[in-house]
Design a protein that fits this description.
Helix content is about 20%, strand content about 30%. The chain has helices at about 1-15, 15-25, 150-160, 180-190, 190-200, 210, 225-235, 285-295, 325-335, 360-365; strands at about 40-45, 50-55, 65-70, 75-85, 95, 105-110, 115-120, 125, 135-140, 165, 205, 250-255, 255-260, 300-305, 345, 355-360, 370, 390-395, 400-405, 415-420, 425-435. It has a seven-stranded mixed sheet with strand order 12-13-14-15-17-16-18, with no helix packed on it. A six-stranded mixed sheet has the order 11-10-9-19-20-21, with no helix packed on it. Helix 8 (about 285-295) links the parallel strand 13 (about 255-260) and strand 14. The model is unreliable at about 5-35 (pLDDT under 50).
Length: about 450
């Protein structure tokens, strides 16, 4: 029913091109206060069964901005809140909407001093069902994207996904200058097909090296606080590391829990929590958070995602889990010792897409799959599609995204991962169920 409702909205958009053209954001000119400003957004960020976070950067920083959220089913106003665009946040506004109902469709609009500035039939979002309620969920994952308005973003929208997860190098920044990082985030969120998608699709993200600061960079990078600041201004995850450190976060959507790891901020800044004589990847605090939340999770499927890959690039670079294999192996041992079911790994970065099936039955009680999806853009690196004893599929193919469907209305619950090239051309598919990933079966 939820996808039927979204289809109705999409049909309305097609019939109202004038409204769409008036409300879709365009490229933001930057560089000086005298530059012509245009709006960026709005964007739907983190959404849970009770809350939502909505984001907007207005064209005119002065004034009082109001968000109004309406419950479509009851035809009542569910939330109203005012905000002011502050220069210290690059005039980005974020609203947190509380007290929502599970599995409910909401529409929203934004006004400035009482005058509508963002409205239309494509400004809506749906809350997921309550945890434990059987449902079907579809998420999109992708990494490594340029600024050109490619059709891939429209392909994702046409698949009516319940959420979009950006795995890093989204966008490419390659600088720690705050103004430049902000500019690149604005340009990225203003790509028209992507901008249309995020107006009604919950969007989460983490970073990889190029949006952290530069190729193969780690936590020793000077100026990383600037890229963190820009990231937090232009993303609305539910969490952001701890005490001003890192950006790692987690969210739940129906039968899926997703961990978005930060594999940059803490890397090589302290000893590893599992091998004190070696440098860390995740850092002690993120490591403890990951293990504790994995132990507590009751979701049938637990996706641990990050920008980098979970094995070795087999090149001169060190930004992969292969370089920190002791932390990966410690994670596998923890999964086995605590009998954590349903774990699937997700990675990006390498401009190749791959499916690996690790032979972890003796350690974890079931095989651990790694789903690598890269790139969204067209620049592939065939030399990184290397041989591996656990490789099932691999391809240096441009313009790829990952469509992940989970169905908990079945018993056991099922997971289908499809690597899809632009224009809907399927590459390959993985099908597993909850019993396949259960050490107690």
């Amino acid at each position: 029913m939820k996808r039927t409702a979204r289809r109705v909205f999409n049909t309305a958009i097609a019939l109202l091109p004038l409204v769409a053209s008036l409300t879709i954001p365009h490229h933001v000119a930057v560089g000086s206060e005298k530059a012509t400003r245009t709006a960026t957004g709005p964007m739907v960020g983190h959404v849970s069964d009770k809350t939502a976070r909505l984001w907007y950067r207005p064209a005119e920083p002065s004034g009082r901005y109001e968000l109004s959220v309406r419950d479509v089913t009851r035809e009542v106003i569910a939330h109203q809140a005012f905000a002011v665009a502050e220069s210290e946040n690059d005039h980005c506004i974020e609203w947190r909407v509380d007290g929502l109902e599970p599995d409910r469709l909401y529409r929203y609009r934004i006004t400035r001093d009482g005058q509508p500035i963002a409205q239309g039939d494509d400004l809506f979002f749906r809350t997921p069902p309550s945890v434990g309620v059987p449902t079907k969920v579809r998420l999109a994952f992708g990494s490594c994207a340029d600024m050109n308005p490619i059709k891939l973003w429209s392909d994702i929208e046409n698949e009516e996904v319940d959420g979009l997860v950006l795995l890093g190098d989204t966008p490419y920044i390659d600088s720690t200058k705050l103004d430049f990082a902000r500019q690149r985030h604005r340009e990225f969120l203003s790509i028209e097909p992507l901008a249309r998608l995020i107006r009604h699709t919950p969007t989460w993200g983490t970073w990889d090296d190029h949006d952290f600061g530069g190729n193969d960079t780690d936590g020793r990078l000077k100026g990383k606080s600037n890229t963190r600041r820009a990231f937090l201004e232009y993303r609305v995850n539910d969490q952001a590391g701890h005490e001003g450190q890192g950006i790692y976060s987690r969210f739940s959507y129906g039968p899926i829990d997703v961990w978005l790891l930060d594999t940059r901020w803490f890397a090589r800044t302290e000893p590893s929590p599992v091998a004190s004589e070696k440098p860390t990847l995740l850092g002690a605090r993120q490591w403890t958070w990951l293990l504790d939340s994995l132990r507590q999770s009751e979701a049938p499927f637990k996706l641990i995602a990050c920008g980098m890959i979970w094995d070795d690039k087999e090149n001169k670079e060190s930004d992969d889990w292969g370089t920190y294999s002791y932390e990966r192996e410690a994670l596998f041992r923890f999964i086995g010792e605590q009998r954590v079911s349903g774990v699937v790994l997700v990675g990006g970065d390498i401009h190749c897409s791959r499916l690996l099936k690790y032979k972890t039955e003796a350690i974890c009680g079931y095989p651990i799959y790694q789903l690598i999806v890269s790139p969204i853009h067209n620049r592939v690196i065939p030399s990184l599609n290397v041989a591996h004893p656990d490789l099932v599929k691999g391809s240096a193919t441009p313009h790829v995204w990952l469509k992940l469907d989970v169905d908990s209305t079945r018993s056991p619950a099922t997971l289908r991962a499809e690597w899809v090239q632009m224009d809907g051309r399927e590459m390959w598919t993985l099908d597993v169920n909850a019993d396949d990933l259960n050490p107690s079966r």
